[in-house]
Design brief:
The mean pLDDT is 94. This protein has three domains: 94 residues, 3-Layer(aba) Sandwich (Udp-n-acetylmuramoylalanyl-d-glutamate--2,6- Diaminopimelate Ligase, Chain: A, domain 1); 223 residues, Mur-like, catalytic domain (UDP-N-acetylmuramoyl-L-alanine:D-glutamate ligase), CATH 3.40.1190.10; 150 residues, Mur ligase, C-terminal domain (Protein-Tyrosine Phosphatase, Chain A). Helix content is 33%, strand content 23%. The protein is α/β, with parallel strands linked by helices and 486 residues long. It has 16 helices and 26 strands. The longest helix is centred in the first third of the chain and has 16 residues. Helix 3 runs parallel beside helix 5. The strands form six sheets. Strands 11-10-9-12-8-13-14-15 form an eight-stranded mixed sheet, with helices on both faces. Strands 19-20-24-21-22-23 form a six-stranded mixed sheet, sandwiched between helices. Strands 2-7-6-5-4 form a five-stranded mixed sheet.
Length: 486
């Protein structure tokens, strides 16, 4: 945990306009919403969550040494406890943490990236550019974890809870990072996890059906994404979906926007694909430059344009952009090739209808034979997209429908929902055991074919019945390829 500037309880009360109960002179050195992690010097903030109420965990927080607490319901306070009383503890959490940690985002140049697909890929592309341009470690926060350079920082969410986020950002300041590239999920925006975080640039990749179990409909989902652009002074927006065009029209200062895509300010021309990646010429914004990325597919060219747009918005030179992208290594679980043989095998995180469709289209560019897909859908998530995912997968020549992360649901019922969307006449098989499905797909491939294993990407576990079992698509595919060669 980084050393914090800290604040007194009275100073924190002034930050959020809260009422003090007890001793306002107490020194606070950390803020947390998690009663299990609170320690002496810490302020525990009781949040009313979707599943539980943080007020119920006040005794545990105090038992673990909390110096003070922040509550909405004063009647839940144990006697002789110093506290802040506020009307909105969720909103207060980020402001309190930012104050205690010395407002770290003000000492960093942060790029926030939102959208349904492509956030992680854009993050890695932009990190590579900035690392080359700045010649120093770049912070990154997202689906694959939180990092400063190659050093990983523990993180459990794509966008951490606001108290965790401010602590992570403070640690990045201490490690002398200047730039931070950050995925910002719709959940994080809706749940105010990026409160008190300053963004230099906000970027939008695309929008397609996902998370409607949380947002109810696409309008709410879009509105959540759009929140990121309310305060960022610069915006980079992909026009690859109609939502990008709509977002562009919503921003009151059009001269602060860089649009990318065929109809945008930055365009990709002369695109070429191979098994090793893509090359294209970037045109627009005074640029006419050839770049290469180790990623295949039109959707990854779109992602690269977003990253390039962000870099240019930060006044990074075109030379640094080209060289940074040239030095980019493999992005874990993002169209990552596994093994080398007579046919190609790729693992990708695609877990939405649009993502599946884009991955298959990318494979078509480099495949003379069949495109074979292994896919499923996650449990306890947006159920409406499952048949649409099956329909999208039908663009392949052969499909193996299997389990993803079934979580608390019956895996076979999820598979039935996916299969219900596959058009009649499509060649597909059902294999609930994911490892076996991967082996069967690879065993069915011939020279010039491509096998796509979709849905889990970089993940190293499979959530079955609330228990996360060790499982890595890349490991399973490598073993299957070795077995196939014997």
């Amino acid at each position: 945990m980084p050393t914090s500037p800290g604040a007194t309880l009275r100073q924190l009360a002034e930050t959020i306009n809260a009422r003090i109960v007890g001793d306002g002179s107490l020194d606070i050195t950390d803020v947390s919403h998690d009663s299990r992690e609170i320690r002496p010097g810490g302020l525990f903030v009781a949040i009313r969550g979707l599943v539980s109420d943080g007020h119920d965990y006040l005794p545990m927080a105090l038992q673990n040494g909390a110096t003070a607490v922040c509550v909405e319901d004063e009647t839940k306070l144990p006697s002789s406890v110093s506290a802040l009383v506020t009307e909105d503890s969720r909103n207060a959490l980020g402001h309190l943490a930012a104050t205690v940690h010395g407002y770290p985002s003000e000492q960093l140049t942060i790029v926030g990236i939102t959208g349904t697909n492509g956030k992680t890929t854009v993050s890695y592309l932009l990190r590579a550019i900035l690392a080359h341009a700045a010649s120093e470690p770049v912070g990154m926060i997202g689906t694959n974890g939180a990092f400063v350079g190659s050093d990983e920082i523990p993180n459990v969410r794509t966008t951490p809870e606001s108290s965790d986020l401010q602590r992570i950002l403070a640690g990045m300041v201490q490690r002398r990072a200047r730039f931070v590239v950050m995925e910002v999920s719709s959940h994080a925006l809706e749940l105010e996890r990026v409160v008190a975080t300053n963004f230099a640039v906000a970027a939008f990749t695309n929008l397609s059906q996902d998370h409607l179990d949380f947002h109810d409909d696409m309008e709410n989902y879009f509105a959540a994404k759009a929140m990121l652009f309310e305060h960022a002074p610069r915006a980079v927006i992909s026009l690859s979906s109609p939502w990008g065009e709509r977002l562009t029209r919503m921003i009151s200062q059009p001269d602060t926007i860089t649009t990318v895509g065929p109809a945008g300010m930055l365009k990709a021309r002369q695109i070429e694909f191979s098994l090793s990646g893509s090359t294209f010429v970037v045109e627009g914004e005074g640029t006419h430059t050839k770049v290469s990325i180790p990623l295949v597919g039109s959707f990854n060219v779109d992602n690269a344009l977003v990253a390039i747009g962000c870099a240019l918005a930060l006044d990074v030179s075109v030379t640094d952009v080209v060289e940074g992208l040239r030095q980019l290594d493999v992005i874990p679980g993002r169209f990552e090739r596994v093994g080398v043989g007579d046919f190609a095998v790729f693992v990708d995180y695609a877990h939405t209808p649009d993502g599946i469709e884009a991955a298959i289209a990318a494979a078509r560019h480099i495949t003379a034979g069949k495109v074979i897909v292994v896919m499923g859908a996650g449990g306890d998530r947006d159920v409406a997209k499952r048949p649409i995912m099956g329909e999208a997968a039908a663009a392949a020549d052969e499909i193996w429908v299997t389990s993803d992360n079934p979580r608390s649901e019956d895996p076979e019922s999820i598979i039935v929902a996916v299969v219900s969307g596959i058009p009649s006449g499509t060649r597909f098989g059902v294999e609930p055991d994911r490892a076996t499905a991967i082996r069967r797909a690879i065993a069915s491939a011939s020279a010039t074919d491509t096998v796509l294993i979709l849905g889990k990407g970089h993940e190293q576990g499979q959530d079955v019945g609330g228990v996360v079992l060790p499982f890595d698509d890349r490991v399973q595919a490598t073993q299957a390829l070795q077995e196939n060669m014997t």
